[in-house]
Amino acid sequence: MKDLTEQQYLLSKDSIIQLVSAELEIPAEDIQMDDDLLLLGLDSVRLMTLVGIWQEQGSNVSFEGLAEEPNLQAWIEKILN
Question: Is residue 59 part of a domain?
């Protein structure tokens, strides 16, 4: 897998989905907006990686905030707002 921290991503719905897909190594089209990402294999280390990327891009999202509701629908709302 590529080092995601070296790539530049703009904060958008599509980039969030693509990053999660890359971390899970699951095609984006196979992840539903309400799927529990922890049940799909996202662990705390991968979540911290994603949080770091999104914070570098200007989001105020936190590990705890995403862990409490681990699905794309909630994450997109939290990351983009």
Answer: yes
